[in-house]
Amino acid sequence: MQALLFTSIVLTMSGAPSHASSSSSAPALGQLQEGVRHMRGGHGESLLHDFLPLVKPADQPTSDPNGPALILVNYKLPREILERLWSNASVRVCADGAINRLYSSFDLEEDRSKYIPEYIRGDLDSVDDKVKDYYVEKGTKIVHDTDQDTTDLEKCMDLVNSLGYPMLQVIVLGAFGGRLDHEFSHYHVLYKYPDIKILLLSRNRSAFLLRSGSHKIRTECLGPTCGLIPLGAPCRKIETTGLKWDIHGESQLQIGSFVSTSNRIVEEEVEVTVSDPILWVSEFRVPESK
Question: Which residue, 97, 72, 96, is CA-closest to 83?
Answer without folding.
Answer: 72
